[in-house]
Model the fold of this input.
Amino acid sequence: MNIWQVKKICEQYKIKIKNKVISCQVGKNGIIDKSLKREGDLFTPIGKWKLRSLYYREDKYNLINESLNKKIKIYKISKACGWCDDINSEFYNQRITISQTNKNQLRYEKLWRDDNAYDIFFELGYNDNPVVKGMGSAIFLHCSFDDVKYTAGCIAIEKSYFKYALKHLTSDTYIEIITK
Done:
């Protein structure tokens, strides 16, 4: 599949932030009802998701902003940050610290990445209240990949739209995946 085919497929998916409709990238297998979502299935769950927390790399972004801190929890990403996707772990679908002790004992996704996708991202309120093991983890709203590829289940938007989300953020901001 060439980049134009991927771009065309990605453009068929949209999310709404506040009242703005935005093209986005979704999981390689498309979108799926949240009740059918499973760990590792490469689907993005359909729904309306609260922006729970904001994560960022301090070496790439300076987010020391008191008004932003009052709207959402903000976490700095370090090289030791991970997200547990191990369905056998008590830490499933939670942020973890990767250490020598657990790095070979848990399955996890590294949050410090070289592809810029996770330089800044929102944790979405998916499968977190309560966490149900196996229903999917690490569903984030992050910046698009430069090559417009699919995600593994997250939602990706262009950096300009991410800035829009930051600018219009409230303590109760949701995104909604819009289906055809």
Observations:
- Residues 3-178 form one domain.
- The chain is about 15% helix and 30% strand.
